[in-house]
Amino acid sequence: MSHSDNGPARVTRAVIPAAGMGTRFLPATKATPKEMLPVVDKPAIQYVVEEAAAAGLENILMITGRNKRPLEDHFDRNYELESLLQVKGDTDRLQAVQYSTTLANLHYVRQGDPKGLGHAVLCARDHVGSAPFAVLLGDDLIDARDHLLRRMIEVHQATGRSVIALMEVPTEQVHLYGCAAVTSVPEGISVPASGVGSAAEVVAVKGLVEKPEPAEAPSNLAIIGRYVLTPQVFDVLERTGPGRGGEIQLTDALATLIDTDPADGGGVLGVVFRGRRYDTGDRLDYLKTVVTLACERDDLAEPLLAWLKDFTTGR
Predict the structure, then answer these.
(1) Residues facing residue 63 across a β-bridge
(2) Using an 8 Å Cβ cutoff, are 176 and 184 in contact?
(3) Which three-class secondary structure state does DSSP give residue 150?
(4) Using the 8-state DSSP alphabet, how is residue 76 labeled?
(5) End-to-end CA, the chain
(6) Angle at the Cα of 33 from the Cα atoms of 30 and 38, rounded to 5 degrees
C-alpha cells in the first residue's frame, strides 16, 4: 500500500471518465459532448471539476474520446473572447470565463476503445501511479453544500480502504444501478467523526451486484458516481475480463477488492449519502436538474418560480 509515515498517502488526484457517446441525448450530442450540455449557464462537467477542486484534488485527469475537444477548449484560455469582454468592460462575464481555467491542473488522455468504465479508469494508471485517487462520474452532480467527496477522502485517510458513495433509491429503481450488500464497520476500524459538516453513515461493503432485479437486490443502496480508490484497483482491472454488456466493469473490480486483504489494498467501505444529488444521465432527469438548480439561483429563482406556477396551473 502507498503509505506515508502518518498513514495512507494524501488523495490529490481525480479521474473523470468522459469518453461516453451520450446517445440518450442525440441529436444534441452528435457534435457536442454530452458533458458540455449546459446546466443553467455552465456545462455539466464544470460542476464536477469544481467539486473535485473544492475537495482539494488539484490534479484532474479526464478520460476522453473522439469529438471531445470542446472539453479541453472549455478549460483552456480563450484570449480573443477575454480581450473582447475586457474592452467592453464586462467584468462579470470575463471572470466567469476565466474561472474555469483556474480550477485545477487538468490533463487529458483518450480511452481509444470504448471498453467500459473499468477500462476508462485503467487508462489513468500512468497518471495516478501508486497513490490513492478519486473517480467522479459526470452524470451525477453533488450539491456544493454537501461535502460528500471530502467525507469519503476523510474515511479513506483514516482507514486506508477504498470508499464508494451509496445512496438509498426506491426498490423499483435498483435495476438501474450497481447495488451494495453492506454490514456495520468491523471493530478495529476507526472511522473519524466528520470534519466537513456532512455526517454520513459509514458501512462495510460485503458484496456488489450490477443492475440487479429488485427481487435479487441485496439492499436498496445504490452506488452513485463517486469513488476513492486504492491504486491496487489497477492490478485488479488488468485481470478483470468483460462483464455485463461485454465491458470491463469497475463494479467487478471492486467486488474483487472486497475479498482482498486490507494489508494489500483491499477492503471497501461505503459512505451513505443523504444529501442533494442531481442526475444529468437522461433527458427527464437532466431537465429536472436544470430547473432545480435555476430555482436555487438568486438571479433566476423568483421569476422562474412565478412562471412555473403560472405555467403549471390548470395543466
Answers:
(1) 17, 109
(2) no
(3) helix
(4) S
(5) 59
(6) 110
Distance, CA of 213 to CA of 209 (rounded, Å): 10
Contact criterion met (CB below 8 Å) for 182 and 219: yes
Question: Does residue 38 sit in helix, strand or coil?
Answer: strand
Please give the C-alpha separations between residue 85 and each of 24, 94, 222, in angstroms, as whole numbers: 35, 6, 45
Which range is least confidently modeled, 20-24, 142-146, 309-313?
A: 20-24
**pTM of the predicted protein model:** 0.91
Alpha helices in the chain (DSSP H): 44-54, 69-74, 79-88, 91-99, 117-122, 125-128, 148-159, 232-239, 250-258, 283-294, 301-312
Give the closest residue to 269 by CA, choosing from 142, 182, 149, 188: 182
Convert the pLDDT of each residue in 235-293 to its tens digit.
999 887 777 777 888 988 999 999 887 777 778 999 999 889 999 988 999 999 999 99
Q: Is the peptide bond before 231 cis (omega within 30 degrees of 0)?
A: no
